[in-house]
Amino acid sequence: MLDGTQEDLPESKWNLNLIQNNDIYIDIIKDKNYGKEEIIDKVIIDNFKIEDEPKKGEIKIYRPDSQNLSFTNKEEYKIENEIEYKGSEKSDLNNLEIANQGGLIILRFVNQDLGNYKTDEDEIIHDGTLLGKIGLTNEDVQFKVSFDISIELNSGKKYKASVNIEMPIGNLIGEGTTNTQINGNDIVFKRY
């Protein structure tokens, strides 16, 4: 996804400061083959590392806006070191709670300060094709991140997995948007 903030300059109808959004959805699902009852106490996502920086831009990490569960990329929703979700009866992203049997967690990796796009066109499409219009390539905006996901259960058991992701995947500049799904079998949780 691509976004931009409108700059108030009279020389063009559109003067956008381009940013590139990379949303990650983490769906924690109870293992149906596990016969015992376990309850999630908390889920911690931490140890964020930018393994390979993009050639252009700067990476920031955000959680959804607590008011409407969309992303606003505001300082108050920026994740610095970790984010912790408490186990609860039901998921409530607003209050950083995840259902005690599993649920969805959403993160956004933003590549900001990519450049300005000025035009007098009546309409523009806010997607990755705008990056090509300011001379950027897919290689300019690609980056790799890693982070850990820890699941702590009420029984005292703790599990951790490391996740490595390259973003964006595919031809963002040519197609406008891209997406991929990481197979759960590729992420291995180990007890610690």
Provide a descriptive summary of the structure in words.
With 192 residues, the protein is mostly beta strands. It is built from 3 helices and 10 strands. It has helices spanning 129-133, 138-141, 172-175; strands at residues 2-6, 14-29, 40-52, 58-62, 82-88, 97-99, 102-119, 143-153, 158-167, 190-191. Strands 6-5-3-8-9-10 form a 6-stranded mixed β-sheet, with no helix packed on it. Strands 1-2-7-4 form a 4-stranded antiparallel β-sheet. A hairpin with a 4-residue loop joins strand 8 and strand 9. The two termini are 36 Å apart. The model has no long low-confidence stretch (mean pLDDT 89).
Element layout with pairings:
Blueprint lengths: L1 E5 L7 E16 L10 E13 L5 E5 L19 E7 L8 E3 L2 E18 L9 H5 L4 H4 L1 E11 L4 E10 L4 H4 L14 E2 L1
Based on the model shown, name its key terms.
192 residues, mainly beta, four-stranded antiparallel β-sheet, 10 strands
Brief digest:
By secondary structure, the protein is mainly beta. 7% of the residues lie in helices and 47% in strands.
How much of the sequence lies in strands comes to over 45%
Radius of gyration from CA coordinates: 19 Å
Unreliable parts: none
Q: State the helix count.
A: 3
Class based on secondary structure composition and strand pairing = mainly beta
**String of helices and strands:** EEEEEEEHHEEHE
Q: Give the biggest sheet.
A: 6 strands, mixed
Round the mean pLDDT to the nearest integer and report it.
89
Shape: elongated
N- to C-terminal distance: 36 Å
Total beta strands: 10
- Into which percent range does the helicity of residues fall? under 10%
Going across the biggest sheet, name each strand in turn.
6-5-3-8-9-10
